[in-house]
Amino acid sequence: MITVEQTASGRASAREVVVWDPLVRLIHWSLALTILLNGAFVEEESKAHEWIGYVALGLVGLRLVWALFGPAYARFSAFPPSPARAVRHLRAIVRGNRSVHLSHNPLGTLMVYNIWASVIAIGVTGYMMTTITFFGVEWVEEAHEVLFGWLLFSVSLHVAGVAFDTWWSGVNLVRAMINGRKTIPEGRKVQ
Amino acid sequence: MKLGLWPAKTKERRATVLAGLILLQGVSALFFIGDVILDFREDGHLDNPHLLLESIAAVALVSGVIFLMIELRGLMSRMSDMQTGLDIAHGHMAAIVGEFFDEWNLTQAERDVALMILKGLDNDAIARVRNTASGTVRAQATSIYAKSNSDGRAQFISLFVEELIAGNERLAQGA
Hints:
The structure holds two protein chains of two kinds.
Chain A: H1 2-8, E1 15-18, H2 22-41, H3 47-69, H4 83-94, H5 106-130, H6 138-169, H7 173-179, E2 181-184
Antiparallel strand pairs in A: 1-2
Helix pairs in contact in A: 2-3, 3-5, 4-5, 5-6
Chain B: H1 8-43, H2 49-103, H3 108-118, H4 123-130, H5 134-147, H6 153-174
């Protein structure tokens, strides 16, 4: 029996799980694109900069709605923001536990909320700069810029985290965010 | 549950199109709402036909987004049901093959050869994979056919195909 199963599948029974639905993936890469465009390519005080900013806000808004109604892995319940879980996850890494998280891992979860909150805060301060009340007010402009610096730092940390987790758990996270599937290595525990 | 009537690829493409529509429509809905709020702030009353039409459009867009989201969620859960069904079928097939081999008292070498026959390898290929002479494989195959009461490769394979078809009928009746 066991031998049949082992030889039956050519690749040593690694399993694939569909984790990220297309909406999650589209929102993820669109948001990345808006950040890249507004951060690096578009003139800062242009109309295009404003519109791209609003699109970014809309994307995060849509993702939050999807986190209420969407499929299981996309929902808030799959990745509750919990520093305690993040600490436990860190300890597990130190102990050499390489189990796979199907949704975001607890550390990644904190990063997700951090990036969403940063984008919203950048969007709001950006909008404030276009209003008569706050136009030219210094603290708003400064907040906008400091928040963007924080976002850049967060994004680089996010990329580093993805690289680390891909190496550590053996699940290619970038590919999972492109085709939606996580390939779980054989015999790896799943949470 | 309709198993396999719609190929998985088509479903996946449909899900991607749905997601794209949700994205476009959702962002446009937010713009419309923003515009309505701005206009209302400037104008102050809702009886203005332009504003009324805009509000209706915003409501329609939002309902559309919600409807598409429900559609997409349903599609995603149907896709995962289908995957579960396939996994179960794969698991069952492996179990059935194993049971048959047990029943016929195949030796370990014969089990390996029988499995490769099921996968469509010819005797020469099996000999190469197992690093044995093709005469040995032929002898093992003959022994497998004798133990399974079949008169050759085709009938041996059809034993399992028959099992699959019978299994499907049972599934269909149960559904």
